UniProtKB/TrEMBL annotation, chain A:
InterPro entries: ABC_transp_permease (IPR001851), BCAA_transport_permease (IPR052157). This is Branched-chain amino acid ABC transporter permease. It comes from Thalassobaculum fulvum. Signal peptide: none annotated. The chain crosses the membrane at residues 20-41, 53-69, 75-94, 106-124, 144-169, 198-223, 229-253, 265-287.
From TrEMBL, chain B:
Keywords: Cell membrane, Membrane, Transmembrane, Transmembrane helix. This is Branched-chain amino acid ABC transporter permease. One of its GO terms (molecular function) is branched-chain amino acid transmembrane transporter activity. The chain crosses the membrane at residues 9-25, 31-48, 60-79, 99-126, 133-155, 175-196, 226-250, 262-291, 298-318. It holds the Pfam family BPD_transp_2. PANTHER family: HIGH-AFFINITY BRANCHED-CHAIN AMINO ACID TRANSPORT PROTEIN BRAE, HIGH-AFFINITY BRANCHED-CHAIN AMINO ACID TRANSPORT SYSTEM PERMEASE. The keyword Transmembrane helix applies. GO terms for cellular component: plasma membrane. InterPro entries: ABC_transp_permease, LivM-like. It is found in: Cell membrane. It comes from Thalassobaculum fulvum.
Length: 300, 355
């Protein structure tokens, strides 16, 4: 670990490379986490199948690439398909857990996550897949920093998607209804907002965002039926670290996690990357709890 | 809760089945052994989940810790563990009968103790978390343990360890492990039955109903939670050790820390039977296991999908569980008093929703 640290200090270009790759990945994490923050904040559902929507989106891109279509074009298709899928899931399961205690939603979506992962495993098998977009790589700093075009493009797409969603939430009628429901569902109902529809739309939008993020994942990384849970955990890390309803915080924390994960994978070895993410979750949770504890003491 | 007589009949039936079962259906010995394991898992999950109101998704971590602890103890008594695991089973090491059984006995005992110690250490960190945060945090603990073990080459890393082989014939070994699971499940059940009848059990229920009030009444809630979790971890650790020896080959992701299979099954089983009751987890585990084996036989390839669907339906549509439903329906049979116009007889699910 110390040797690797020395390498990093000796070769700043390598550190910059890790940083840049971390930012590319972090953009995707930020999208997934934003979806989670949306569902969590609006309907108080802790969606543990977040990561599995990502993987489903990835497989949509994979299928497109297999049939000879450029997987970049899969982005809008995955968005629409996952929107519909999310709506169906809402009607079948989520609608019944919205008003229940939070453990119910956690467990129900965990069950859903298992279900989705197993179905994917049956259809696609447990092999690791990737969607080849066929763009080249360009180099910076004497070849020490390799940037694949596809990563740059996916960063741009993620940014465009995030911008679109932010504008939608701010200016459209539905976006305003969603924000109103998040603030006070009862008051929103009194003022004529169909909150059931808002919940359905929010959940479907979340699935769509995850699906689009999944397309990007399959472009720059690999997908596998059981990789979903790690994305869910990452989303939880980011949202708990940033806090609900703190959009800039979520995006910043997403980038931060991407960089931190990339760095720790290099420093500790790739086999500890997942462990590092999970430990970060625990640290964030415990830190938040300490903060809360202080508040509790003051209030009483 | 139920009358002493029905209890006696149920115990007699279960013990009779436990003894006669493997003799009548020798082909199913392992399946029935797993059923006792499921009963044990669901019952010990319920100590925290049902009785104390702390829904842990990470109890499976203690299962894996126990399994690895016993493996390391069993091997380390006579060989160098690093060498043994580095060879990935290429070195055929022989354990004499005496070596094997001392190793096994020591391994099982230490597995429980080590799991309990780890549970206390983890508990000190995570018991500040409440509600869903506790669930996510404990899930994180289980996933982190699996990843750490698979990165630790001393215990074989992701490649796993092949366990010492049980001396004697295949039939004898499966019967021996069957007996261990059976005894373990019964002992755990009787222990929990006694535990829930003491003040300690009442304290756990008080924590579930309102932790702040319990604390204000002078209960040292952290201590109660730690002890309750350590009890669950102790049994889970021993169960993991037995399971590892029964399987013969242990590996971090699928065998030792199966977060997405046994880890979620134990929660689903306790919920299916009715959490917060003594018999609920037992009933749920037996039912779940039977359904699981049936889907295994008749829905090959789709069995996991079917199980996932069962879990979702169980949690979303039928969360109070079988016993919870029965208590709602016939409260008198369970010795519960119904407060007219109130909803005091509703089981754990409703109580939590009210929080």
């Amino acid at each position: 670990m110390l040797d690797n640290l020395q390498i990093l200090i000796a070769a700043p270009a390598l550190a910059a490379d890790l940083l840049i790759q971390g930012v590319f990945i972090g953009a995707i994490f930020a999208l997934v986490a934003y979806g989670l923050a949306l569902v969590w904040g609006v309907m108080n559902v802790k969606n543990l199948c977040q990561g599995d929507y990502v993987i489903v989106g990835g497989y949509i891109a994979y299928l497109m690439a297999q049939s000879g279509i450029n997987p970049i074009l899969a982005l809008p298709i995955a968005f629409v398909l996952m929107f519909m899928f999310g709506w169906v899931v809402y009607l079948a399961v989520i609608r019944r857990v919205v008003d229940r205690d939070m453990f119910t939603s956690l467990l129900a979506t965990f069950g859903l996550a298992l279900l989705i992962a197993q179905v994917l495993n049956l259809i696609f098998g447990p092999e690791v897949r990737t969607a080849e977009a066929g763009f080249g790589t360009f180099f910076m700093a004497d070849g020490l920093i390799a940037i694949q075009w596809v990563r740059l493009i996916s960063l741009g797409l993620a940014g465009a998607l995030a911008l679109g969603i932010v504008l939608f939430m701010r200016h459209s009628r539905m976006g305003r209804a969603i924000r109103a429901t998040a603030q006070d569902p009862r008051a929103a109902r009194v003022l004529g907002v169909n909150t059931d529809q808002v919940y359905a739309f929010t959940y479907a939008l979340n699935a769509a965002i995850c699906g689009a993020a999944g397309v990007l994942v399959s472009l720059i990384w690999v997908i596998q039926p059981y990789f979903g849970i790690v994305y869910s955990i990452r989303a939880f890390v980011i949202v708990t670290a940033a806090g609900l309803g703190n959009l800039p915080g979520v995006i910043l924390a997403g980038f931060g996690l991407g960089v931190a994960e990339n760095m720790s994978a290099f420093l500790l070895g790739a086999e500890f990357a997942v462990a590092a993410v999970v430990s970060m979750l625990l640290i964030v949770l415990i830190y938040r709890q300490i903060q809360l504890y202080r508040v509790r003491q003051v209030v009483r | 809760m139920t009358s002493a007589r029905t209890d006696g009949v149920i115990y007699a039936g279960l013990i009779a089945f436990g003894i006669v079962g493997p003799l009548l259906f020798p082909g199913y010995t392992n399946q029935i052994a797993i059923m006792w394991l499921m009963v044990l898992m669901a019952s010990t999950w319920d100590v925290m989940g049902g009785q104390t109101g702390y829904n842990s998704l990470g109890n499976i971590a203690f299962f894996g810790i126990g399994m690895y602890a016993s493996a390391v103890v069993q091997i380390a008594l006579f060989y160098d563990v690093g060498e043994y695991t580095a060879a990935f089973g290429a070195i055929k090491v022989e354990f004499t009968d005496a070596q094997y059984f001392t190793g096994l006995a020591l391994g099982l005992g230490l597995a429980g103790v080590i799991a309990a110690i780890v549970s206390v250490l983890v508990g000190l960190c995570v018991f500040g978390l409440r509600g869903p945060y506790f669930a996510i945090g404990t899930l994180g603990v289980a996933v982190a343990m699996a990843e750490l073990i698979s990165g630790w080459n001393y215990v074989g890393g992701g490649g796993g360890i092949s366990m010492p082989v049980f001396p004697g014939e295949a039939g004898a070994s499966s019967l021996a492990f069957y007996a261990m699971f059976f005894v373990l499940a019964i002992v755990a059940h009787l222990f929990l039955r006694w535990l829930y009848s003491t003040q300690f059990g009442l304290a756990l229920n008080a924590i579930r109903d309102d932790e702040d009030k319990a604390e204000a009444m002078g209960l040292h809630t952290l201590r109660y939670k730690l002890i309750a979790w350590a009890i669950a971890a102790f049994f889970m650790g021993i169960a993991g050790a037995v399971f590892g020896n029964m399987i013969g080959f242990i590996e971090p992701l699928e065998v030792a820390f199966p977060t997405t299979t046994f880890g979620i099954f134990m929660v689903a089983m306790a919920l299916l039977g009715g959490k917060g009751t003594l018999w609920g987890p037992v009933l749920g585990a037996i039912l779940f296991h039977v359904v699981k084996e049936l889907t295994w036989t008749y829905l090959l390839d789709w069995q996991w999908v079917a199980l996932g669907a069962i879990i979702v339906v169980n949690i979303v549509y039928f969360q109070q569980g079988i016993l919870g439903w029965a208590q709602d329906r016939w409260p008198a049979a369970f010795g519960l008093k119904v407060d007219e116009g109130g909803d005091d007889a509703t089981p754990a699910g409703a109580r939590e929703a009210a929080e």
